[in-house]
Write a structure and sequence with these properties.
It is a single chain. It is built from 4 helices and no strands. The chain has helices spanning about 5-10, 15-30, 30-45, 50-55. The chain is elongated and about 50 Å long.
């Protein structure tokens, strides 16, 4: 049997923090503009390499 004690145990079991994270995910998913952007981005087939991005930004 493993026993967790001290601050680590209370931090690990802090349910309100998990509820806040769940709520944040829910609100993010309700952001229609963001979801549409992510859908469009997921459909893109072209990629830019790091070297290309640096060149475009003048960071060669």
């Amino acid at each position: 049997m493993v026993e967790i004690t001290g601050t680590l145990a209370s931090d690990a079991l802090n349910a309100p923090e998990l509820d806040d994270f769940d709520r944040e995910i829910e609100l993010t998913r309700q952001n229609k503009t963001l979801m549409e952007f992510l859908d469009r981005r997921a459909q893109e087939t072209s990629r830019v390499t790091l070297a290309e991005a640096k060149a475009q930004l003048g960071l060669d």
